[in-house]
Amino acid sequence: MKVVSVTEESVGLGNGRFVASKAVHVRIVFSSNLSLVHTVHVVAESGKWTWILPSWRFRDYKADRCPTDPGSAPPPASA
Description:
mainly beta, four-stranded antiparallel β-sheet, about 10% helix
């Protein structure tokens, strides 16, 4: 795993709030030479960086639903 870039982004928390965050783009390489770039967001909290759940997963967590349960939100379609 390697960080390929970091950008400033406003991110929705899933509760209607948007906050400033760092979008950290990481490249993950698998043994089959398949690789992908995944983005995680971190926010400043009490002087430390803390990663956050995507807003669509936060809603499942708040509703005490497992992401694989029927009725859970699917991941957003990627461009």
